[in-house]
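Title: Prediction job returns without error message
Component: structure pipeline
Severity: low
Priority: P3
Assignee: unassigned

Description:
Job completed but the reporter wants confirmation the result is attached to the right record. Sequence as submitted:
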Amino acid sequence: MSDEGNGNDNARAPAGGRPTWAEIDLDALASNLREVRRVVGAGVKVMCVVKADAYGHGSPSCARRLEREGADWFAVALPEEGVGLRAAGVTKPILCFEGFWEGQAALCVRERLTPIIFRLDAAEAFDRAARDAGADAEIHVNIDTGMNRLAVRADAAAEFASRLREFRNLRVGGLLTHFTSADEADAVGFTHEQARRFASAVESFRAAGHEPEVEHLSNSAATFAEAAARATMVRPGGVLYGLWRDVLRPQGEPPRLRPVMALRSRITLLKRVPAGETVGYGRTHTLARASLIATLPVGYADGYRRALSNRARVVVRGHYAPVVGRVSMDLTVVDVTDVPGVTCEDVATLIGTDGDCGVTAEDLARDAGTISYEITCGVGARVPRRFKPGV
């Protein structure tokens, strides 16, 4: 059966160029946001995390769709990412998780980016930039309840809150923390302790005269598992992109989440190789039988990790085909001996479904010894994104 006739409407690569591409299903993205809203209920805002190019899915297109679906806030890591969203037409508030770097305070004020503040010198610089612009600027303060990264320690929250009162052009619009282990069932006790520390820090800020409008603690895992920690806003990330099997705690009923990314390529060469010969760099795979070997124009430079060598499998014509030999920088070899009717130019699905068979980002993460976020974030810029519906 040809790929044009197998019911897969994603079989055609973008015209011209190397036939390796990623498909981004924006309807699935929108559906996942609706699922988050169903879980958290009315009255809880949703901050959609679109950092790292929306976990590799293409942040401008994803953010525009999420904004149309009613996202309340967006979160990025860097001011540069926020500037890109503004240039793409995104109008909702944007939070910068890493604050800003030296010389970027005025940029953040001009582009209406809300930085996380965790140092007083950064607060001073942002206050100065806001004053120079004749504006009042909003900040969020990150409270360290156990992560020990970029945040103000909870036991220093009262002093930090007091010092922030010195900056007349700043307004503490939000307080947040990051859970360390909300995805781990055996760490529930520490998750609850983090929530307690955060609540104490919030009291310190309010006692100092700050009136934060939003409090947000919950990442993807806590959004689904910790109803008491949803506060006034949640921050889903991976679940928006249908990544959940290695992110959420085990649940009685699986969440109604749909994968957003598929990764596909086309067979460039088919060849018969005798039994006993080896495949690829290092001769790490010896053929136990005469085999039909297919070469795909995709490799670890595209994010298809070298750790998948001799471990992963792809789907061709609705059948699984194992990766054989080492994944190289630009090419991957699969054994299609057991794929009936395979031809050159057939589509190989590296992430996604074809017929009754499929490979998830979580499958690849397990094979590579990592997490699904790293798999989708790693799909490189030289892999074109094909959005559906079109944007």
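Comment from assignee: result matches the submitted record. The CA atoms of residues 77 and 322 lie 36 Å apart.
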